[in-house]
Amino acid sequence: MEIKTKLLNARISAFKIRSLINLIRNEYLLNAINILKFINKKGSYILLKLLKNIVNNVKNKNLKNLIKLKIYKISAEKGKIIKKIFYRAKGRSDFIHKRFSNIFIYLK
C-alpha cells in the first residue's frame, strides 16, 4: 500500500529544498526524521513538519508499522512566483521574485 502526501506552496524555493530531499531519498521514515533533526536549515524544518504529520496520520489510521515505511519517491517542484517591485535610484526598478515550491512524498 502506498501512502501519499503533498505540501503545496511552501515558502522556499525548490532549488534550496532539493539538496535536503536528496539526503532523505530511499531512507526509512524514522531514519529520515533523525537526519533532518540535526540540519539547521529552513527547509529541514518544513520537511520535518511534513514527515511528523505523516507519522501522526499513520498512527491515527493504523495503516502500517512505522518501522517498515520507506520513502521511495520524493520530489520538489516549482510552485508559484510572487513578483514585487523594488524601486531603485534614477527612476529605475527591479523585480524581487519570491519563489514557492510544491513537495510530494510517497511512502511504501
TrEMBL record:
Ribonucleoprotein found in the keyword field: yes
Highest taxon listed in the record's lineage: Bacteria
GO cellular component: cytosolic large ribosomal subunit
UniProt keywords, alphabetically: Ribonucleoprotein, Ribosomal protein, RNA-binding, rRNA-binding
Biological processes, Gene Ontology terms: translation
Gene3D superfamilies per record: Ribosomal protein L22/L17
GO molecular function: rRNA binding; structural constituent of ribosome
Ranges in coiled-coil conformation: none
Keyword RNA-binding: yes
Family, per entry: Belongs to the universal ribosomal protein uL22 family.
Function: This protein binds specifically to 23S rRNA; its binding is stimulated by other ribosomal proteins, e.g., L4, L17, and L20. It is important during the early stages of 50S assembly. It makes multiple contacts with different domains of the 23S rRNA in the assembled 50S subunit and ribosome.
Subunit structure: Part of the 50S ribosomal subunit.
Protein name according to UniProt: 50S ribosomal protein L22
Native source organism of the sequence: Zinderia insecticola (strain CARI)
This protein's encoding gene: rplV
